[in-house]
Design goal:
The protein is an all-alpha fold and about 425 residues long. It has 16 helices and two strands. It has one domain: MFS general substrate transporter like domains (Growth Hormone, Chain: A, Up-down Bundle). About 75% of the residues lie in helices and about 0% in strands.
Length: about 425
């Protein structure tokens, strides 16, 4: 029997509880990926225009923005299994109620559910990175983080394939009633599957942190503040740029290139296959070409592809415009996501263990606040008929600034000569 390559063998050696945790994250990401692929299209089919969709979607980020930092401060040095369980129960429940509220025209209830989804996602996101680093041995942290990020790609593959299959079938007659297999049905099915995640999280141990927090939960050491600021600047730029365009890619393809949801889901699944493979080879790539290649190189190419995709709007009547946009879409996502495990490991190494929960929370607040602000900005820009390609150029500019800030973190880590040793203070 042929032996596995060394980089795959490292994944097989991960502890059982890490794999159990990854499985739970996969189920949660089935809901996230379904919403990413189909939620905007479902809202559009309910008669909502682009500004109204952006206004409702932005509600998910309000609770996260205001509660992330207090939650991160509270969770520092504490057990993390219970917060993850609460989030994993609340997230699919509020997602189901939100779907039905929109379908029934109960928009006030829908808005409240989107707020609740944001809070539930916050609890999961704050705890996920520190939790996987507590469960995994230090020498296997790269593989554990890469596998954690790969759950998004795996969930996108499953969600995209199911969406394509269901919408190709179209409808099923059952007991004299015709059941439509549309965006709503796909979202409903994947949300129900994702509701099984709490059963997996409940089986996890609850390891104590190696560096429990000392002092009042609100206290932050003064010498940590500049460290935290430098660690969070790249996230601020990347998150703001992504919020302007990435969450509305399905609307771009629908409005500009008239691509249906079934085809968009299929292309998203192809991209997700590449994301999955790219994510799994991240530890090997980082070992061979270092932080600079694994972060700066792949992000720069991804930015170029985003610009190319957006510029196809200028020639949308040409027969080659849609194929070029699809190719850029398929290749951009794996490259940008490939940097995710490396940037997370870099940031967690830079700030040290005592700040991991806080940085994870601040990242959540930044992503939520930036996406809320970006969604409102997108709403305003589209209401004034600004073309998509100009929005994409703004995203590219913010990505490049974020890449520059990552370079500063890489230099700081490299100067200390040991990327496995946490940096407790910065010069």
């Amino acid at each position: 029997m042929a032996r596995l390559p060394a980089w795959l063998e490292n994944y097989r050696k991960l502890p059982r509880y890490v794999l159990l945790f990854i499985a739970g994250q996969f189920l949660i990401n089935l809901i996230n990926s379904a919403q990413f692929l189909l939620l905007n299209l479902f809202l559009k089919n309910q008669g909502m225009d682009d500004p109204a969709i952006a206004a409702l979607s932005s509600q998910r980020f309000v609770a996260t923005f205001f509660l992330a930092v207090p939650a991160g401060l509270w969770l520092r040095g504490r057990p993390l299994r219970k917060p993850m369980l609460i989030g994993a129960i609340l997230f699919p429940l509020t997602a189901l109620v939100a779907l039905e509220s929109v379908r029934l025209g109960m928009m006030t209830t829908a808005s409240a559910c989107f707020l609740s989804m944001g809070f539930a996602g916050l609890l999961i996101n704050i705890a996920s990175l520190p939790m996987v680093l507590r469960l995994a041995p230090p020498k296997q942290s790269s593989e554990a983080l890469s596998l954690l990020f790969a759950t998004w790609a795996a969930a996108s593959i499953c969600g995209g394939l199911l969406s394509s299959v269901l919408q190709t079938i179209g409808s099923i007659p059952l007991a004299g009633v015709t059941i439509l297999l549309d965006e709503h049905a796909t979202l409903l099915i994947l949300t129900l599957v994702g509701s099984c995640a709490p059963f997996l999280f409940a089986r996890l141990p609850d390891p104590a942190p190696h560096a429990p927090h000392a002092g009042h939960w609100l206290h932050v050491r003064r010498d940590d503040l500049p460290l935290l600021g430098r660690a969070l600047l790249p996230t601020l730029c990347i998150a703001t740029g992504a919020g302007l365009s990435i969450q509305f890619l399905n609307l771009f393809f629908s409005s500009v290139h008239h691509l249906g949801s079934a085809a968009y889901s299929a292309f998203g699944s192809i991209s997700a296959v590449l994301v999955l493979f790219a994510g799994l080879i991240v530890p090997e790539v980082k070992r061979r070409i270092g932080w600079r290649g694994a972060i700066l190189g792949v992000q720069s190419v991804a930015v170029l592809l985003l610009v190319g995709m957006g510029l196809t709007e200028l020639w949308k009547s040409m027969p080659w415009a849609l194929p070029v946009a699809v190719i850029c879409f398929i290749l951009r996502q794996p490259l940008m996501n490939m940097a995710g495990p490396s940037t997370s490991e870099l940031t967690m190494t830079y700030v040290g263990e005592r700040n991991r929960e806080l940085v994870s929370a601040c990242n959540g607040a930044i992503w939520s606040g930036a996406w809320w602000l970006a969604a409102r900005t997108f709403e305003l820009l589209r209401a004034n008929h600004l073309p998509y390609w100009q929005v994409f150029l703004a995203t590219a500019a913010l990505y490049l600034v974020g890449t520059f800030f990552y370079l500063r973190l890489i230099r700081s880590v490299e100067q200390r000569g040991d990327s496995e040793t946490p940096i407790e203070s910065a010069a």
